[in-house]
Amino acid sequence: MKKYNEWNEVKKELDMQTHSIIYKERDIFWASVGENIGYEQNGKGRIFSRPVLIVKRFSRNMFFGVPLSTKMKDGNFFFEFELLGKKSNALIVQGRLFDTKRLENKIGMMSKDDFIKLKEKLRELLGM
User: Fold this and answer.
1) pLDDT tens digit string along 48-89?
2) What gap in Å lies between CA 15 and CA 104, rounded to an integer?
């Protein structure tokens, strides 16, 4: 059963935040992605969070990010890489715009080589 009411309460709290997060492309943060519909990736726990890779910074408050998972899947929609000695999977097809109010704490950074490969795969997926 979906927890939309709980997520709405968390979302209200997040929106009231005034902190500034310093971040850059390739950073990986825990982020409150929410309780979503259909096949969209959900967050977990009290604040509905999961790791998110920052792919493109647009301003100090807004970025394009890709949720991460430890479940390995093959195909054009996914990119496997190593994070902190463990396999991780970037869910490229789930990428979207995020506000920095959703960011919690930094947990790592993707290697430069992997980041270049991920961006190539993203361009292919989008037909760019």
Assistant:
1) 999 999 999 999 999 999 999 998 888 889 999 999 899 999
2) 13
Residue entry with tokens 């709980």: 6
State the Cα–Cα distance between residues 33 and 49, nearest whole angstrom. 6
Query: What is this structure's pTM?
Result: 0.91
Domain boundaries, the chain: 4-126
Number of Cβ atoms within 10 Å of the Cβ of 125: 16
The CB-based long-range contact list for 15-22 (8 Å cut-off, 24+ gap) reads 15/101, 17/101, 20/60, 20/100, 21/100, 21/103
Torsion of CA 103, 19, 55, 94, to 10 degrees: 40
| Dist. CA 80–CA 60, nearest whole Å | 28
Kindly report the CATH number that applies to the domain delimited by 4-126: 2.30.30.110
